[in-house]
């Protein structure tokens, strides 16, 4: 009993953990680019996307508190094949996702050396991504980067820049008020809802949804909450309100100072530079900010590189991949050299977007859209899985249950899942419609190839693979 109590976490701690999982400075320019309509997009993302995902994940995590996350949940509902598909998708989403994150490093470096045009050059962006990510790869093979870089990366890449951006932004707003030439512009009630005049902002709808991807992982703490049902709902809602406020307030002050049509989506330091000019602060603040965030993002990349790789290794040891790939074999840090090198090679290929697609903003949006669509496929599978489990196993103990407590009705679960599906179709559909034809084709092809690939692997899977891997592990 004492051990159980010692593992319990408070509501405040749970809120903090949830925010740390999904909070980011990288998405603020995406939100800011939509102007006053950001309030509409953010509300839709919170209420009809993030909240339903959290509810579905909460019920799953209560039933299956073991390690495994979405892969375990889906496997227990839809079977091994779909569990593997989810595991695969959560790995491959990092291919375009990591390139998107790493693309922020080039403009940061440009700001560090006071050469902003260089940082916004597509070829230079490609070089920075390749150099930094391969350094990250080599470090992960020699050191336990997840352990070394976790806390440092969060502070330098998240907490400090968020606080600096918000503080300087608010002071600037107080000094100059609403700037008429800014992306935000003068306020009017009709600007809050997208219409024919602001239809171009739909291109940012899916990227704004992307802010909340990964929030399902906070549900793993549900069994450590004192009162899972009440505390989880309150904690998630409080975390979502906090994330809404932090992202929206930061985006509002950024949109106020960045001139209309000049938002640089992967340049986190753009607004800091403008704040310093308006407030008459020394330019070295921009250099220091850029250096801190550069180090923070690079360290975060190091920590993230090994996480999904371990999921692939776990699947390989269950016989999901051909043994000759050596995905099952790990070093002293429990990292598979084969998986790390494979993902780094594929990420390098994805980074060629910055060479092939004209314009850094266009390439950035294509990458974030691809990552979002892949994640949305996972959430659709999870939605189907929760409904299947309700029908097949109503007797399972559910510490947290969607719907009225003590009721046997599945209506609440159906409503939540349908709301999530509608939000996904609505946001992705409008984003694709507002974007370019190249964006639509690229995102569709990437998503379809990465979705059907695990089904192909599953089809050729041999029962002997698992035994062969087991034999090799025993010889290690």
Provide a descriptive summary of the structure in words.
This protein is 70% helix and 0% strand. With 476 residues, it is mostly helical. It has one domain: Amino acid/polyamine transporter I, CATH 1.20.1740.10. Helix 2 (11-22) packs across helix 13, helix 6 runs antiparallel to helix 18 (360-392) and helix 10 (122-142) packs antiparallel against helix 16 (337-350). 49% of the residues are buried. Mean pLDDT is 88; it is low at 1-6. It is found in: Cell membrane. One of its GO terms (cellular component) is plasma membrane. It is a multi-pass membrane protein.
List its traits.
single chain; 476 residues; mainly alpha; Amino acid/polyamine transporter I; 70% helix; disordered N terminus; AA/rel_permease1; APC_superfamily; membrane; transmembrane transporter activity
Describe the structure in brief.
This protein is mainly α. The protein has helices at residues 2-6, 11-22, 28-32, 38-63, 69-78, 80-92, 94-102, 105-112, 116-119, 122-142, 145-176, 205-210, 228-257, 270-279, 284-316, 337-350, 353-356, 360-392, 411-434, 437-460, 464-475. Helix 18 (360-392) packs across helix 20 (437-460).
């Amino acid at each position: 009993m004492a051990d159980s109590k010692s593992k319990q976490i408070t509501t405040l701690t749970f809120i903090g953990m949830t925010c740390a999982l999904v909070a980011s400075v990288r998405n603020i320019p995406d939100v800011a680019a939509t102007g006053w309509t950001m309030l509409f997009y953010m509300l839709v993302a919170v209420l009809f996307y993030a909240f339903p995902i959290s509810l579905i994940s909460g019920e799953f995590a209560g039933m299956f508190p073991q390690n495994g996350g979405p892969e375990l949940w889906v496997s227990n509902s839809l079977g091994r094949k779909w569990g593997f598909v989810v595991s695969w998708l959560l790995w491959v989403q990092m291919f375009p996702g990591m390139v998107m994150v790493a693309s922020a490093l080039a403009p940061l470096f440009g700001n560090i050396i006071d050469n902003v045009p260089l940082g916004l050059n597509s070829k230079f962006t490609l070089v920075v991504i390749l150099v930094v990510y391969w350094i990250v790869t080599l470090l992960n093979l020699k050191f336990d980067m997840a352990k070394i870089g976790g806390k440092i990366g969060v502070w330098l890449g998240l907490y400090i820049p968020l606080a600096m951006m918000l503080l300087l932004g608010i002071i600037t707003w107080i000094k100059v008020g609403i700037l008429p030439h800014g992306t935000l512009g003068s306020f009017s009630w009709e600007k809050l809802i997208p219409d024919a005049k602001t239809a171009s902002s739909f291109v940012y709808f899916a990227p704004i949804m992307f802010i909340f991807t990964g929030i399902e992982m906070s549900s793993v703490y549900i069994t450590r909450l004192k009162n899972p049902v009440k505390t989880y709902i309150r904690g998630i809602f409080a975390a979502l309100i906090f994330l809404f406020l932090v992202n929206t307030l930061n985006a509002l002050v950024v949109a106020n100072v960045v001139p209309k049509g000049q938002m640089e989506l992967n340049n986190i330091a753009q607004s800091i530079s403008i704040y310093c000019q308006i407030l008459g602060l020394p330019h070295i603040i921009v250099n220091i900010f850029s250096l801190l965030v550069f180090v923070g993002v690079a360290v975060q990349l190091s920590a993230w590189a090994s996480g999904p790789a371990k999921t692939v290794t776990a699947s390989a040891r269950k016989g999901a991949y051909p043994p000759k790939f050596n995905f099952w074999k790990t070093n002293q840090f429990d990292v598979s050299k084969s998986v790390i090198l494979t993902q780094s090679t594929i990420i390098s290929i994805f980074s060629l977007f910055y060479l092939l697609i004209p314009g850094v903003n266009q390439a950035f949006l294509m990458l974030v859209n691809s990552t979002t669509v892949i994640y949305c496929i996972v959430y659709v599978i999870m939605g189907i899985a929760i409904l299947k489990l309700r029908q097949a196993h109503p007797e399972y103990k559910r510490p947290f249950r969607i719907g009225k407590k003590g009721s046997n009705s599945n209506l609440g679960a159906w409503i939540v899942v349908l709301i999530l599906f509608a939000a996904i179709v609505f946001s992705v559909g409008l984003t694709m419609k507002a974007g370019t034809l190249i964006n639509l084709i690229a995102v569709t092809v990437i998503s379809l190839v990465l979705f059907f690939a695990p089904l192909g692997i599953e089809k050729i899977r041999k029962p002997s693979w698992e035994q062969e891997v087991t034999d090799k592990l025993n010889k290690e």
